[in-house]
Amino acid sequence: MSEPPDPVSAVCSTLLELTPSGLVTGLYLRGGIGFGEWIPGQSDVDFVATLDHRPSVAEVSALDAAHVAVAAEYPELHFDGPHVLVSDLAADPEGCPEVPWVLARLFEVKVPGDAMVAWHELAWHGVTVSGPPIESLGVWTSHARLLEHTRDNLDTYWRGTAEALAAMPSEAAHESACCWCVLGVARLHHLLVTGDMTTKSAAGRWGLGYYPEQFHRVLREALRIREGGPEQYVDEPAARGLDTAEFTSYVVRQGCT
Question: How many CA atoms lie within 13 Å of 17's alpha carbon, on the beta-carbon side?
Fold first, then answer.
């Protein structure tokens, strides 16, 4: 994707206009936009902002206010990401200090929870909105560490999610659970199998050629929920829940062996 979609460009411009002068030295996009995938109404806007210095208490408050204003002006978009120094990006993300970070409109000063993924997406698939080009930032990467992190994510968060889905199939039957879980685990497994990062939708399409046919129906349903298309479980929400739970458990087992 050479240029961000108009709504994404607008939200970025608004943030830059509202932040304290001279504080933000660069604004970069990652996630689906970096891979050329933008689905209105589904895709978040994932960013990494670089700062000139560690912000003061007053500057943190100003960043918070800027994000509150952006959320009010663009309520349909989630604008998520950390505000870091370039030196943070050049170092192992597991050592990243507490920084201003916004996720699902919640602004906090904390260690960014997705730093390992963010650093790699930024380095390999990032889009420069403002500031120096990404390749000049010296972003830290380690393919081996990324794979280790991904496998650990499957073995902890997603294993727990799979167990919860199996215990509460009625929750797994919701469209949101199907889309989030099926495409979420497929994306992580795609990285472990192929070595390459990708998007949720691309992972779902890859899965139709990789996973056993018994899971194709739930993969198509997850893609339908995200992108549109024919419903696969007409009047069968219980079946969708069971298939979502089974697929999530299957991928966790495959990815952790």
Answer: 8
Residue-wise pLDDT tens digits, 138-196? 999 999 999 999 999 999 999 999 999 999 989 999 999 999 999 999 999 999 999 99
Residue 243 and residue 173: Cα distance in Å, rounded? Answer: 9
Which residues 6+ apart lie within 8 Å of 118 measured at CB? 30, 46, 48, 81, 82, 93, 112
Per the listing, tokens 């972003």 go with 139
* HEC readout, the chain: CCCCCHHHHHHHHHHHHHCCCCCEEEEEEEHHHHHCCCCCCCCCEEEEEEECCCCCHHHHHHHHHHHHHHHHHCCCCCEEEEEECHHHHCCCHHHCCCEEEEECCEEEEECCCCHHHHHHHHHHHCEEEECCCHHHCCCCCCHHHHHHHHHHHHHHHHHHHHHHHHHCHHHHCCHHHHHHHHHHHHHHHHHHHHCCCCCHHHHHHHHHHHCCHHHHHHHHHHHHHHHCCCCCCCCCHHHHHHHHHHHHHHHHHHHCC
Q: Cα separation of 117 and 125, whole Å?
A: 11
How large is the average pLDDT for residues 93-104?
95
Kindly state the greatest CA–CA separation across the chain.
Answer: 56
Q: Judge if pTM exceeds 0.85.
A: yes
Burial class, 21, CB count within 10 angstroms (exposed 0-12 / middle 13-18 / buried 19+): exposed
pLDDT digits (tens, 9 = 90+) for 202-229: 999 999 999 999 999 999 999 999 999 9
The rounded distance, in Å, linking the Cα atoms of 222 and 11 is: 28
